[in-house]
């Protein structure tokens, strides 16, 4: 009962379009059924933890619990997945996994990563240099056979240039600055870059730091209101995954 109350309190602020996905997810979990199919070993959470994070240069693993949701979302796409954009890469664990997925299922993988690596209050220059070095090492170690374009800059400068040049992506992963206005800005521009039937993924939807202006949830909720009727909810848990249904 206490757990149910805690869940209700947590999800009361979720966007209405996400509630059914949240409910079914909890029902499946409660009855021991995930309904998500079998993840190949080389893409599994266990493999990432034993063969990737333990051998690469990673200081944390916030990503692997998402694999059980991300894999079926990608396999269920209505369009080929070849072009991937990641906004906010940290040490590259999510990049490595998406690259491994594209290596297995893609025909001509194209990965683009945007991150300033330092320059805001949570990551100083010295730590940022270390994080970037880890990212470069991990990409070279695990994705050396793929082309990964790293853009060292803030998304607010890079994304408008991509829109202007006509770039498009099949999957966009938004995990950059968590400032509410920054998340909103990234969401609007990412939507312009996303192909029809492509997936837009928001990380840390329910993350609640003390400062309310550092929470992604209000921005994601507002954005979903703006694109009402133009998306389909694919999944919602710690992350939000939506499919673009109407080109803008």
Describe the structure.
This protein has 248 residues and is of the alpha/beta class. The chain has one domain: Rossmann fold. Strands 3-2-1-4-5-7-6 form a 7-stranded mixed sheet, sandwiched between helices. α7 runs parallel beside α8 and α8 packs parallel to α9. The radius of gyration is 18 Å and the shape is globular. The N and C termini lie far apart (44 Å).
Mean pLDDT: 90
Percent helix range: 40-55%
Distance between the termini: 44 Å
Rg (CA only): 18 Å
CATH architecture descriptor text: 3-Layer(aba) Sandwich
Give the C-level CATH assignment: Alpha Beta
Q: What's the number of structural domains?
A: 1
Task: Profile the largest sheet.
Answer: 7 strands, mixed
Q: Outline, from the CA principal axes?
A: globular
List segments where confidence is low: pLDDT < 50 over at least 5 consecutive residues: none
| CATH topology assignment | Rossmann fold
Hey, roughly how much beta strand do the residues contain? 15-25%
